[in-house]
Amino acid sequence: MTTNKHIPPVLELIRDNIIKYGNPLALNHRQNSSWIKDLDLPAKGEILFYTGGEYQLLPYLEPLLKTMTYIDPAGRTFSLLMGARKLVNFIGIAPEKIFAGMLAKDKDRYNSINYKAAYILKKLGYDLCYDAQGEIYSGALLYELGFWQDLQSYAVRVGQAIRKTQAKTVVCLSPHAAEMFKHVYPQFNEFPELEVKTFVELVWEKRDKLSPIPVDSPVVVHDSCRLARDLGISKEIRDILDSVGVSYVEPIRNKEWTTCCGGPGKMLFPEISKIIAKRRVIELTDTGASKALLACPYCLSSLQGGLNPDKPMVIEDLVEFIYRGVNHNVEL
Amino acid sequence: MSNFKKELAEYTKNLNKATQDENLTRAVTRTVKSYRQNVEAAMSQYPHTPALAEEVRTIKDYSMANNKELLERAMQAIESNHGQAFYAEDREAAMNIVKKIVGQGKIIVKGKSMLAEELNLREALQEEGNEVWETDLGEFILQLKNDRPMHILAPSIHVPREQVAEIFSKFFQKEIPADIAEEVSVVREFLREKYFAADVGISGANVVAADTGQIVIIENEGNVRLCTGVPPVHIVIVGIEKLVPTFQDAMKVSEVTWRYANYGAPGYVNIISGPSRTGDIEKVITYGAHGPKEFYVIFVNNGRQAMMSDENYRQALHCLRCGGCMYECPVFQVTAGHYGRTYLSGIGSVWTSFVEGVESAAPMLYTCLRCGRCVERCPMQIDVPKMVGRLRSEVVSD
Ligand code: SF4
Question: So what's the ipTM on this one?
């Protein structure tokens, strides 16, 4: 492990977890794939369903954040984090034990998004495979936080994991993972050639198969930065809503001008991150809509955390929303 | 705790404190709203602007690749216009030249310049026993408040009129009401005297045309006109990245700069080629007619050459300092210049990495959300998130 005097210890903690456990919070394969339940997904196939373990991380983020937010940044945060780092060195992090504040309902909800996404795609006729034993995190945080040297060897590991599944196409639930596969990893030697799709795109291609979804009032769309700006996907979400007969409104800033949910700042500047989330929630509630839809795990978690109790709004992942529009009677 | 941890903790504390400062949040929110409205109005009135910005990107590409040659040409042109041109490798060299020209015990009036902030110019000249006045109203307020700019175009964005009244009342030793018109007029009166008493005027520059040696300075208040036109000596300090090949190019860069700074047309565009002169008596050219008799231009490197020679970061030098990206930055919107040192926000963290070093820039580099909305706004399409990622990798591998 490198100890760098110019970066905050929490970043090293995340890095070490990714390198050591293939997951930013050191969740293991069992924890990562518990969502799969009755879905019968083979480990090999043409289209790889890729969660990257990202929705699975979300229930741990808020409690972790809470621990960090109320600690004086000038002092104890660092010793706390240094302590956490030592834990990683010796035993790895046992998130359930450390973040006892985690809510079971959050865990169920975020995990079920993986299930629902796979279910929807299967219903739409996609033959998916999923590597419950071998799936590792995309490495997006290594890239974003500057651990580019580590990324060299991590890319090899991700490449091997993908190759093992024999997939030609990878469908990513998180736009952050999609960005890695589409824009970052192709620059590395010997990374397998892949067609990279997001969940949104696959649904969009077969949107005519979805049934109408009844809603009382228009929903508001929140575009994720990665999806809208880096991957250029925003119209697709509107098309999907049109095809299920749902009317929608736009906040003051959206599509390529969308406002960030504040999520990327969570680890280092939790208070600022929260304020940014709250401000984005205001932009969303100002439209008068009572439900916001989005398609990114971090946006989901951040905006959820930025809700104003006096101005209730339901924040839903597009996966959760569309799940209502699939025909549950048709055999999988 | 190590220095870095202390610095980061201090920085974080400041950032968090800034978000709780209601004056700041209110002022920035107002400014962002009017910026967006103004820039939209300016764009619809002058719809050729985005195409012009594209042309400017090409001009900048060429200028960075040929900077050495442009510098030589500009210096020659300035000399042949009867000015004096200098090149300074770093801060120390630049300040030595300025100090030598200025001397001691002088009165200096100064226009707004980011490079002056970078060089700590005012403080350095004051240490030499000079009396230095910031003439941009926002900077004047900050000078009295002993504070630093919170936005590159609106440096005192965080100070409301009530606080200005307090600061002015104390300084002028009389009751100044919290009335903006009165506040403006009391400064006007005070500085007017200083312009005429001043020995030296110092300004920055927005663009320099290499072929004619002409300096372009965009402003609204008219203070730059007075600073550069009244005192007997005018010194321009300018970064080498501001050079473009021709006068025509300089005009294009200028228009794009002010348009993205949310102006249809700014109050004044100053174009200065050399000292003031007249040939009206017997056709004998005499310098220092009404304006300065002496004209100096100091081109400063201070890390820019390194940026220029690295293709990963060269584009950051295209920055016009229009400020647009800051208004669109979600972090800047709640912290203003606390997310910064001399240079602010995402683009500022890239600049800081070169003029002060990545170590100093590290906290800023990690503040960026990499959300990318700045790139949408930027007339030069500077890919700040990408550069921030790469610079983080330098911090980490340090
Ligand atoms: S980075 Fe772009 S938007 Fe920001 S100040 Fe510079 S030119 Fe303007």
Answer: 0.93
